Predict the structure.
Amino acid sequence: MNYREPLSQRAVAISISASPDMAVLGLGLEHLDDAMTEVARHLLAMGARLLYGGDLREQGFSRLLFELVARHRRDADLGDERVGVSNYLAWPVHAHLPAARLVELSEALKGSAEVFCLGPDGTVLSTEARVAITATPATRTEWADGLTAMRVAMRTASDARIVLGGIVEGFKGKMPGLAEEALLALEGGQPLFLLGGFGGCARDIAVELGLAVDTGAPFRTWPGRDRFAAFSVENLQNGLTADENKVLAATAHIDQAVALVLRGLLRREKIASGELGGE
């Protein structure tokens, strides 16, 4: 079957979590759910596959994405058999989960979503290899290395990265997870979209790249923040102009943010197809 959606050949990774600024901005977790829903819904409608590094908690974003894909497929009724969401589980995340539960979940999601369990080096484990694992508590170093390996694997498997919100403390990796995913995108020349309207790590990165104005609030120091000083708006390579990226980094209106993300992705598609000149 030929798929004609403009992003049908693209995989877009999403980084999203609550930020320490949400209460100050008058936002709650329901706003974060709405933001994820709108971003994912429009990308799915454009044919994109979504990548997420979730932990499968009952009320987490992984479950929300699974529900969105199932609903989209049901509503579209196009006989589309492509996988809509790929959920990546880092080594320390899935090692403590019962293998039977993972197999059961994979079977339930078959045809619409998939769950990848990764080894310590980021390679995908076969079902047999995962079943053979005996769970043991992970050290902090194993957590950090496993999460980095997962994020590198996701960068390799995706064509663009969207980041929104982001905690800056209480993380188990080498730096805040959203920061590491954004940094890997920048270092690898992957298109990166910074949605700064929810504050948090995404907003901090936007400040470092000169896309957002420091509001005068106390400067947050977190591991890896200084590494973003080596980059600028040109390194985002997301199909948007500098002015458009500044709007994206500041807007609290998710509809506006989604429109900009789609504009950038579609602009890149036209460049790739020769319809537009290079950036």
